[in-house]
Amino acid sequence: MTWRESRPGAAACFFSENSETREGVAVTADGSEGAAGYHVPVLLSEVMHFMAPGKGKLLVDGTLGGGGHTEAMLQAGAQVIGVDQDDQALTYAGERLQGFGERFLALRGNFSEMPELLEQHGESKVDGILVDIGVSSWQLDEAERGFSFAKEGPLDMRMDRSQSQTAADLVNESSEQELKQIFRNYGEERAAGRIARRIVERRAKQAFVSTTDLAEFISSFIPRGGKSHPATRVFQALRIAVNDELGVLERFLENAVKLLRPGGRLVVITFHSLEDRIVKRFMKHVSTPEIDRKEWPAPRPNPDYQFQLLTRKPVIATGQELELNPRARSAKLRAAEKNERIAV
Q1: 143-243 — its CATH code?
Q2: Signal peptide span per the entry (predicted)?
Q3: φ and ψ at 56, to 5 degrees?
């Protein structure tokens, strides 16, 4: 018996009507909190609309996390493969979703490696792929992961803790020019040069080890602008650099084209402009039948044309969701469907 031939399992818990938040709590049928205090994913109803899960569909959640999106799709009758590079997430989601039996399969790896991961389990085509880019709330809230400076923790930021390079390595070993480029390109930090220079000066005397040390050092010479902490963009940039997030996203998008069956859906949720820009440009390109350039006498067929856009503009969280989960304010969802007539 393959993992896809098993019988459906019973749902472990239900979502309350107002629980569409990334850091909300799943509730049991009687309305009480689930034993594990599950985090409910962002834009859940919107994901369900565009993924359209149902019996007979094979879907992939490329960023499994706590398993909230996956659980909802399983409850709708789909078979789901969940992918994550974080062992802690795989353990958590595996326990949460064990009631669905072999209708759910968890795979360890980066979602950019999806073709190889699926091939190992006899799958080459799927009916839908979801990725929710960014750091989960429970990762942010866990000080030892080093993603946030809200609590003191090691300057780590690795989503895959088996990799060697940490944020501390980047901060303490990169050249001033390299740090400047990281802060400018990945954090869009206006004071990138100044921050890089001061970091190099300070680390010559004392290396940066903790999140709060770096954050407090930056705030000592960069004034607060609005509600954001002066170190916010630097921490974003370091996280992106440590995990090669933009490169991973680009590789994933190219692979998704090959993995989806005709009629299959691609749904991507991003949390900052750099990622959203990549997704927007990609979806626009693969959904444009013809390409026109000034030097050409007439438009030419687009060899990459394989999709139809389902979202002309990004879908964002409702006011109700934002009241329950302020972290959802940056979330943007874009979706596209592979053309039925193009079987690639």
Answers
A1: 1.10.150.170
A2: none
A3: 90, -10
